[in-house]
Structures are given as C-alpha cells and as structure tokens.
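> Could you send the Protein phosphatase 1 regulatory subunit 21 prediction when you get a chance?

Sure thing. Input:
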Amino acid sequence: MAAAGAELQGKYQKLAQEYSKLRAQNQVLKKGVMDEQANSASLKEQLKMKDQSLRKLQQEMDSLTFRNQQLAKRVELLQDELALSEAKGKKNKRSGESSSQLSQEQKSVFDEDLQKKIEENERLHIQFFEADEQHKRLETELKNRLEVLETDAAQHQAVVDGLTQKYIDTIEKLQNDKTKLEIKSQTLEREAKECRFRAEECQQQLKNLHADLGRRLDDSLCIINEKVPFNDTRSSKYNALNVPLHSRRCQLKLRDIAGQALAFIQDLVTALLNFHTYMEQRVQIFPIDSATDTISPLNQKFSQYLHENASYVRPLEEGMLHLFESITEDTVTVLETTVKLKVFSEHLTSYTCFLRKILPYQLKSLEEECESSLCTAALRARNLELHNDMKKITAVFEKLHVYISLIVLPSIKPDGLLRTNYSSVFTHIAAGLHGFHNVMKEISKHYSQKAALEHELPTATQKLITTNDCILSSIVALTNGAGKIASFFSNNLDHFTASLSYGPKGGTEFISPLSAECMLQYKKKAVAYMKSLKKPCSDSVPYEKALANRRVLLSSTESREGLAQQVQQSLEKMAKLEQEKEHWMLEAQLAKIKLEKENQKLKSSLTGQLIEPMPENSVLPNTAEQEKEEAIKKTSRESWTHRTLTRDHSSDAKSREDLIKNHYMARIVELTSLLQLADSKSVHFHAECRALAKRLSLAEKSKESLVEEMKLASQSISRLQDELTTTKRSYEDQLSMMSDHLCSMNETLSKQREEIDTLKMSKQNQPQLNHSSQDFVKPGLKNL
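Output:
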C-alpha cells in the first residue's frame, strides 16, 4: 500500500511539474503575442504617418510642377520679347553697337546661368522621382510584410487560443485527477492502517506458530533420535529406492499425451507407407513403363528396396503402441523407467538405415530422369530441388534418431545423460520436428510443380497422372502429420521437461534403472498392502447372539455321533436318489426310442399299403401259418426299418449339407454386399478427407495471413505510438520555433523601423533641395 501511495505521489508531482511548465510556456506565448500586437499597432500608426507625409510631398510636387510650368511660360515670353528686341536692335545696330555688345555679353551670361539652373532642376527632378519610386516600392513591400505578419499573428493567436483551451482542459483534468487521487490516498491510508493492524495480528500469530512449531520440532527430533535407527534419505543410493509421491493427474496427463502421440504416429506411418508405395509405382512407369519396356537396373533395385518399406515403417507404430501401453495410472513414468522407449528408438534406427540405404538410388533415379530426352529445363530444375530435399529429409531423420537415442540412455546407462541436459535435448527434438515439417512443405511445393510440368508433357499417361496425384496426396498427409507432431511436441515441451525428471522426496534423481525397477516393485508391494488394509472386515455375529447360540449348543442333547449318523443317512438317501434318477433317465431314453420305432412302423405301414394293395378274395391261413408269417413280417419290418433309418440318416445329412451350403452362400452374398458398401463408404470418406485436407490447408493459409495481419497491426500500432511521440516532440519544437520566429520578427520590425526612419530623413532632405533649386531659379529669372 505504501508503494502504491508513493507511486501515486510521484505521478502527481510529475503532473504538477508538467502543469507548471505548460503554464510558464503559456505566459511566455501570451507575452510574445501581446508584444506582436503592440508592434503591429505601432506599425499601423507609422504607416498612417507615412501616408500623410506622402500626401504632403505629393501636394508639394504638384505645386512645384505648376510653378515650373509658369516659369517655362514666362521664359518663353521673355524669349519672344528678346527676339523683338533683337529685331529692333538690328535697326539701331549702328547706334547701339556698344550697348548691343554689352547686352550680348549679359545674355550669354544669363543663358549659361539659366542652363545650369535648368540642368540642376532636371537632376533634382530625377532624384525626386527615384526617391518617390523607392518610397512606393518600400511602402508596398512593407504593406505585404505587414499583411503576412498579421496573418502569422492571427495564426499564432489561434494556436495560442487552442493551447490555452487545451491547458484549461488539462488543468481541469488534473484537478479532477487530484481530487480522485486525494480520495484514493485517503482510502489507501485507511487500508494501510488496517493492513498495519492485520500485520501486527499476523506477527503475533507468527510468533505463536513459531513457538508451537519449535516445540513440535523438538518433540519430533527426540522421537526420531529415539525411535528411528537408520535414515535412508541421507544417502542418494538408498533414497533412490524410496517410492516418490505418486501424481495420478501427471500419469493421466502423460497417458493422454502418449495416446495423442500414438494417433499422430499412426497417421505418419500411413502417410509414409503410401508415399513409399506410390514412389515404387512411379519408378515402374516413369521414365520407362515396365509394361512396355524393361526399366534400368538402378530403378529395379530401387523398386525392390521400396517394396520392403512396410517392414521398416510398421514397427514404428508397434513401438509407439508398446510405449503407450507401458504408461499406466499405477506406474511412475520417468526417463529411467520408460524401457519401452528403447524399442521405438531401435525401430527408428532401422527406418533411418532404410532411408540411408535408398537415398543413393533415389538420387540416381532423379539424375536419370534429368538425363532423359523428355526432361525440360524447368523439370530438370525441379528435379534438382527434389534432389536436395531428399538429402535434407534423410538428415532430419538422422538428427531425430540421435536425440531420441539420447533420451533412451537414462533407462539403459545410469550416467548416459545428465539431468541438466534433458531440457536441451527435448528442445532439439522440437526443433528437429519443425525442420521435418519445413522440409516436407518444400517437398510438397517442389513436387506439385514437377507434377504440373509432367502433366504438360505429350507422353504423359493417365497412369502417371494418377500416380503423381497419389504421391502428392501422401506428401500433403506427411506435411500435415509432421506439422501436427511438431506443434504437439512444442506445446507439451514444458510438461515433458517437468514431468519426466522428478524423483523421490529429498533426492534429486534416480541413481540407475535398476534402482528405478526396485522402486517400482516396492511401489507394487505398498499398493497391495494398502489395498489389504482397505479390505472391509467380514460380517461378524453380534456378541449377544453368539452367547445365545453357545447356550443352545451347550444345552442340546445331540452329540457328535448323532450328527455323524444323520449325515451318513442323508448321504445314503442322496445316493439312492441318484440311482433312481439314472434309472428314470434310462427309462425315458428307452421310451423315446420306442416312440421313434412306433412312428417308423406307422410310416412303413402306410407306404406298404400304397405300394401293394391286398386282394379282395383271400384265404385265411391257420394260426400256425399266421404266426410264421408274423415272424417273417417282423424280421422284414426290422430290416426295412433299418434301411429306412440309414436312408433317413443319409437324407438328413444331405439336407444338412444343403442347409449349411445355403447358409454360407447367403452369408457370402451378405458379406460381398457389405464389402461393396464399405468400399463405397471408403471412397466417400477418402473424398471427404481430401476436401477436409484442402480446407485445412486453406485454414492454415488464412491463419498465416491473419498472423501476418496481426503482425502488421502490431507494427502499425508501434508506428502510431512512435508517430505520437514524434508529433509531441515536433509540437514542442514548433513552440520553440514559434518563440524563435517571434524573436526574429521583433528584429525584422526593429530593422524596418530603422529603414522607415532613414526614409523619413531622406524625404525631409528632399524638400530642402527643391527649395534651394527654386531659390537658384528665381534670381536668374529676376536678372532676366
């Protein structure tokens, strides 16, 4: 609570510092804006004064131009008078040669003076015109700059207004936050007081518990020292024989994981079997079809090796099944007790050797396809890619075999693998499985391109197309299976590392597989002992009832001999009843036989009457002859009955055979119909599986695209955050630039003031020059 209060206090201090900074900046900006407004007002006043002085100068200019025009007219009049005087002077030339000479000299002097004054007046006019133009240009420039400065001032004023509004909002927000923080600090103080009170109570309880536990510890140590002669937990060798704590949940989780792994291995084995089988079919039909021509010895040997794939692939499933069956709820599953993992490792070793054996033939077969005349450049490139992929897949299986053989070592050799290396080995296995998945994706991509190119060949048969489709489907199944296994192993990597490395209490590990086996035997004995303790006791007779039965037994007059005689009599009666039972069973059998004979006699008499009818006029024999005839008839009837019995037996046997035959025929028909139904269902299921596989691939692609979009979104979020920070910094920079700009504007305004002052001084000097020119012209005219 104290830490939370300190954190809130620190946040509040930071906010207060920021608020004070913003307030100081706001005051500076207000001052700058006010100075700018004052400067703009002064500039407006100066501009008005300039306009007034310009009007005065314009009026003076107009008056000067009017005066110059008057002077020019007067000069013309004077020139006309001079011409008249010259004409008059010609008449009186002689008389006034002296005076004319004097006037001619004066005239030349006046002309020179007048010419000088005129030139000086022109020069002054030119200077005045240039000064006027420069003044106008400066005036327009100053007006433009004033407009720009006014717009800048308006913009700055808008920014200042926005900032003031923002600062007002932030001030209100900070005040609200301050009130909330004060309320929260009060609640935190109350909670802190309560926590202190509780801490004191807990401290008191802790002291009491400490004292109680110390007393119990002393008692238990006394009991252990007096009663326990040997402590086996001190020695790691003896402690390894102790039964660790049994985690039923952990065992069930491991069994579930093993079941999932078994399902994935079964799918992988099926895909590998299909892949090798369809590759064998492809070798038989491409590049040379074995039905029309003999294939090369290399491909024959390769096909022979591929035909043996089931003997190497099937044991992988069997080894995984044995491992799954060895993990039960009652066992302790660690690496030292998983002996069945060695069988799976041996089967994986044999399959890796098989891949190593067929790899050269596979590479040579691809090279032979490249050397074929039907192989194009693109197809040759795909074959080279598959050439590299086959090397990679063999290397991946060899890597997996090495790491799985390392995991098997703790159940074989005690010091084969250190416990600290378990996690790194499992991590390498996960990396190998991901590598297997990546290689299978590359093979799927390259083989699909190769199959598309082969389908475009003119010599491509339907058999080759279907075989390529089957190989592609098996490669897709392998890719999916590898991806599932890799993701499954990566997701359960932490569980493998944690659950497969625990041992007895007080110890760090099992010493050897032998000690682990002894521990399992002790565990079975302990379980049997606990079960025997948990068996319910047999129902006993209540004590009062037992006393009553004892009294009855003691008070009874029947002795042991009487009871023995009664038993003997009952046994004799049972024997007699057994004999009578056998007698009556024999009688029943005889009666059954007689009944059958009578039925046969009736049948024979009926058949005899139908075959040989008696004559109507017969002579009755005497009694002796009748007896003889009856005896003969009896013998003949017995013989006939014997024959009929044999015939009936033979006919019954034939009918029984016919019935059995019909039954089996019907059963065969039923089984064939069921087989056809199963085939149709399998075709349907195969189509559904292919559709599901396509959907799964599309889903994986969409997942990848979504992951990329998520990455882009996260990048955009980070970019926006960076932009936000940069905008904040740029905003601060702009504020500093604005202050600098205001300073520069002040400097420019001061310079403009100086320029205006200089212009004022120059314009004040110009009228003096004009007046001096007028002063020069007027005496000349007066002299004229």
